[in-house]
Each structure stands twice: as structure tokens, then as C-alpha cells.
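Support request, please re-run this one:
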Amino acid sequence: MSDISREAPTDDGRADGDTADTTNHRIVRAQPYQGRYVELTDAPGEPHVARDELAPGIGDGDASGWTPSDEPLLSLAQLTDFQLADLISPARTDYLQRRSDDPRWTRMTPSYRPEEFLELHAIEGVAASIREFAEQHHLDVTVTTGDNTDSAQHNELATYMRLVTGGPVDPTALGVGHPSSPTGLADDPAYWHPSGTAPDEFTDRGVPRRPGADAAAAKPFTATGVGTPWLTVYGNHDALVQGRAVGSSLYSEYVQGNRKPVEPPAGYEPADEALVDFVADPMVLTGGPSIPVPADPDRRVLDREGYVKGHLVADGLPVGHGFSELNAETHTAYYVWDAVPGMRIITLDTNNPAGFWDGALNDGQFTWLAERLAEVSADSDDPRLVIIAAHHGLSTLTNGYRDAEHHEELHLADDVEALLHRHPQVIAWISGHTHVNLVTPRARPTDGQQSSPGGGFVEFSTAAVSEWPVQWRHLEVRIAPRGAVIRSTIHDSAAPLHAESWQTPLELASLHRAVAANDPDAVGGLEAQGSARDRNVIVHVPLPPELVSAVLRASLTRD
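Re-run finished. Output below.
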């Protein structure tokens, strides 16, 4: 990606032709959030910051041997955590947000976002930003790093794939605008009612009314799509009911039904933690007071095979979006993507099959990963640099839970990091899950004989599309005599900074971002944008000379 000169922003807060690149300008809160609604404003862009933890001396000006190649080995867009929800599904537990202060229920929340009825439009805004970038710059692939759906439902998956590929989208297929969705429950002050007149807890905090936005959000529109090949990563909300519990045929039948709970069952009180009960059996929260919703067979809960098969018949390239027929046959959701000479993307399924939301690798996948890494070592017939793509990063690869049905050995962060450090061709790990922009260099341990780290890899965690700051990350990998140079650039949504009518998809995406910026209960929190060192950065990853030479030779075969 070449640098783009800064231009004066247009009336919508975006510079002409800048494709929302935050090195040109950024969208930020006008002042810190202190319990009352805060407007968004335009701010100066951020230059790239050098991260030298893996290559000491770069920050002091010692850049000898670090002049990168003219052409990138890989140009990649990452976006993550759509959590695209069917708002009237019986699987929804949005009513539990009222109990977020009760420690017995804390890990079942957040279960509601005031901006969630605009999630399709937020995705459209980010996809349009990626497409605009791809029309001006080379972009090999877009990777969505999991939690593409909210509760592993077929209708959520179908809508997600259409939004990323492009084509007609009907928000009512996910309950947007329905009287039983949160925006329709005008007498319930726990939800934001943009067209309402009665007080609710959000307008009490200063969130303004936006009359007609809920009706406009229900209108069909044609999605832009990202305009590139795209790959899918399997997240905990794609694998588990509400991202927490294993679905069953009984539960799948239940969510296709015509009643949506609005309270837990009468008399139910968790003995310890509601999450523990829910993981043991998600039916524990069914049977309480409810409201009518249309029955819908498209709400059926998907297992891994169903999730993979959905991608195998989806539009767009590559066919299967990373998944293969072998994945469907073996009920697996991990794969390699080798379409770019000199590079390999290894996509992992880091979900614990027994439940809970943090991650792990089972023993079979751990062995498979070791084999796939060995295939592309410097002394192999096909040397490549490797990027790991997973929903969980190492900081959340901490879920050792097993039950009577799932008792295979699990590998957590220490095991996985040690394996990756044995393979210097691994240069990066991209993830979501935490809903926060974060860059974490992982230095390779030394034997005590060296005074500086011996290389390693860097983790790039990216904030959620479903929450503030609604961004995506561009990664560009180039090769230099001493190793790989990775440039990370954060991009804003294509949505305008301010909107007046809230009628078009991008205007509604603007409203989504403004409300999300004022949601203190978000998973990523109010500072999910991270620090400057977590956004626009340049990371230098030392590599063995023989690996640099081998990858350079391989890159010459690129068209």
C-alpha cells in the first residue's frame, strides 16, 4: 500500500479518495465518555509507529538490512466479530442485560447492544470501505476472524455470507423491525427505542431519539461486498449457542419455534453461576415468560459440518472460502490457504467443543498444525512465511474445560506458542474475540546466551465490527534482507461521520457507530480502539537468512 497524501476532509468527515485510512484522519469521541452521550468528531491521522520488540535497534535508527521489497508478498484485510444476530430468535437472552450487576449472571452478559438492530448496516459500511480500498490498491484476500454469527443459526450465516460477498439483503430475515424485537418493545425501558416517546435507560443517558431509523433499518438493500476473495474463520459464536453452549437437536427445534423468552423460567435461580448451568444445558433458560414471534425453520442451529457446507455452496471466491469437502466429511473447520507465492495462511478452529467462550486446540488439530508448519520450513520444497488466523489469540487460548463427551487432550496458550516458536517462518497471528485493537509481539525465548530476543511473531487482535470503533485492519507483508516487515493500518467504516436522515445503509451505519461509541457495557469497553501502538504500526520480524532467500525466490513466481 502506498502512502496517501492527506487531503482536507469532505463534509462527511472523510477525505476524498482516502478510503477511510486512519493515517489521513480518524473518527474519535469529541470528549471522553463520562456517563452521558458524546458526539463523534474528526481528528488528525496517525503515522505508523515502529514496534522494535522483535528487532531491537530499529527504534534507535539502526535500520540497516531492513529496507523492504518494492512489492508486498501479501496484502490482507482483516475484519472480525460481526455477531450478526437474529433479533427475535428464542435463543436470544437480551433480557439478561438487566441482571448484569448480579455476579451470578455476569458471564451471561453483555446480551444486548442498543445499536444491534443496525448491525447489517455496520457490516455494509466496513465492507464498502474494504471494497473502496481494493479498487485503488492491491488486496489479495479478506479474512473474517470469527463470530460472524451470534448464535450458530442458519439464517444468521446466510445473511453474513451475502453481506461479505454482495447482493440483496433482507434485514427482516433476522427480525429487524419486528414488533417483538427490542426496538419494538416500546414499553420496556431496558431497550433503546429510537422512535419512542417513553423514557428508557439509554435516552436517560442522553442517547438521542432518531425517529424512523428502526423502520428504515428493516428495508431491503443491496450489499456492496468486500470485492476480494474472502476466507472465514470459525468463532465461538459460530460454533456454540450464544457463543457459550453446545447446541442439541432439541435446542435446534426449540429456536425454530414461535415463543421468545423475556425472563428466565419462574423459580429458576442459579445456584452458583448461570453460565455453568447454561453450558451444561442451554434449555435451562427456556420455558419462562415469553412473547410471540414467527416460527422459522431457517433458525436451525448448525454444527461444524453444516457451517462448512453453507460455505461450500456460497457465492464468491475462493470456492468454500477456505473450507473444503474434507472439512465437511471430517467435521473440522481448519485449513491452509496457499494462493499467494511465498505465503501460507493457516486457519485454526480454536473453539473448545465442550463449551465456554475462550479457546483451545484439541490434540488432533495440534498435530495437524505441526505438520502444516513443517511443510513450509526453510529446508522444505515449498518454503513460505506463515500467518496464523484464528478467532482466539494466545491471551484467550485458556479454556481447558472438558466434560464426559469431550475428553480429548487440549493444548492451551503455552503449548501452542512453544510450537510456533520452533518454526521461524511464523511471522504473525491475527485474531478477534476480545473486541479490542491490540498488537502483541511474541519474542522467541532465548537460551540465555543471547542479549536480545531471537525473533518471534506478532499478534494482531482487531476490534469488533459489532462495537466501537467499527474498523478493519490492513496488513501488508514485505521481505527485507534481515526478515519480514509487516505494516498494519487501521481503516474506518465507509459510513459518514455525521448523518441527518438515517435512511440509507451508510447513514444507518453512521448511527450504529455513534451509538456504539456510547455503550459502556460493550465487550471491548469504551477504549476498544486501543493505543497508537496497537493501530498503525510497522513491525520488523527477524528471519534466518536461508528463509529470506527461499521466500524471495518463491515470490518471483507471483504474477
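The two ends are 17 Å apart (CA to CA). The CA atoms of residues 171 and 210 lie 18 Å apart.
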